[in-house]
Amino acid sequence: MKNQLFATAALALAVVASPASAQVNGIAVAEPAIAIAASQALQTAFGQISQTYQAQRTQLEQLQSQRQAALKQFDVNNDGQLSEAEATTAQNNTAARTQIEGLDQQISQVQQPITQARVYALEQVAQQFGPAVQQVVTQHSLQLILSPGQAVYASQAADVTDEIATSLNTLVPAVSTTVPAGWRPQQQTVSLYQEVQQVLVQAALQQQAQQQQAAQPQAAQPQGR
């Protein structure tokens, strides 16, 4: 990944920009989900949503803890996850299955308004993605922008993800987090939201790993003879 996203206090998201990119013979690469996730408007909106729905987030944590406790009784080897055999045992336990299904339903209901607000905020940013790309295309006289997965090789200089994020910050400095009555997201927005969520998860895991590494005491230096 050309950019590294690190968590903010509320959202596990911030961006560390790489050196200014430049077009390479009219061809560049970019990662839309990362550019959108790195936009200041989306970061701010997600932070506001977290604060607005703090009570629901606390309830979600409690429900998820209850769900984990319900599943833990079937984790015979205590490895923190259910094997296929353990999952089958849980599925065949009527009482446990009913409890877990009930918790899943509650989790979905509590999560729904939070997700809806986030998708609404994201859709507003995504609507400016095309114009942001056009700004970068014009600036560097680009003829083609590929996703990294479409390129066999791309140098760091060919990556314009950061520049698209910068353009987004100019074009859409802020978005609303109040979902209008009757609003429904476009299907492509839902798909994009899932991609952005994956970026956020990766960012959170990266930050966690870095924090753990930083917390480890430095190895004792060998004493000179």
Spatial strand sequence of the major β-sheet:
1-2
Q: Main β-sheet, in a few words?
A: 2 strands, antiparallel
Coarse shape: globular
Contiguous uncertain segments of 5+ residues: 1-23
Helical amount among residues, as a percent range?
A: 55-70%
Structure annotation, total helices: 8
Total number of beta strands: 4
Provide the descriptors you would attach to this structure in a database record.
single chain, mainly alpha, two-stranded antiparallel sheet, two-stranded parallel ribbon, 8 helices, globular
Give a topology summary.
Elements: E1 4-5, E2 15-16, E3 27-29, H1 32-37, H2 40-52, H3 54-72, H4 84-92, H5 94-126, H6 129-140, E4 144-146, H7 161-171, H8 187-215
Parallel strand pairs: 3-4
Antiparallel strand pairs: 1-2
